[in-house]
Amino acid sequence: MIIIELYIYYIISSFIHELGHFITLKLFGVKVTRFSIGNFFHFNIGKLKLSPIILTAFIEFPSKEFSKLTLAPKLIIISSGALMNLLTYFLFPENKILHYS
Question: Which family is this protein grouped under (predicted)?
């Protein structure tokens, strides 16, 4: 049972992490071309990418737009995923999966 709970936590954590990057990319005006949760055995339905087996997550965006940014916005975008995970940990400190014993 703990394996299923850890997998669900991994999916949620991956989504929150990528959401952090997504929000900051949008704040700095960088176009996001794909937000993908799962990259293995997927189905494309328009711009939506569905994957029944989630092993990874990523955001795709034009590198030209990102390279035009100064150093500070780049650092904020890069660190925003980890900061979202940290924020989630502090917002839900009694998560039974994080504190499983």
Answer: Belongs to the peptidase M50B family.
Q: What range does the domain containing 42 cover?
A: 2-91
pLDDT value for 58:
82
Total number of domains constituting the chain: 1
- Cβ-contact 75, 88 below 8 angstroms: no
Q: Which pLDDT score, from 0 to 100, does residue 17 have?
A: 92
- Residue 78 resides in a domain: yes
96 occurs within a structural domain: no
> What letter would DSSP give residue 29?
T
What's the start-to-end Cα distance of the chain, in Å?
14
pTM: 0.78
**Residues 38/53, Cβ–Cβ less than 8 Å:** yes
Are 92 and 25 in contact by the 8 Å Cβ rule? The answer is no
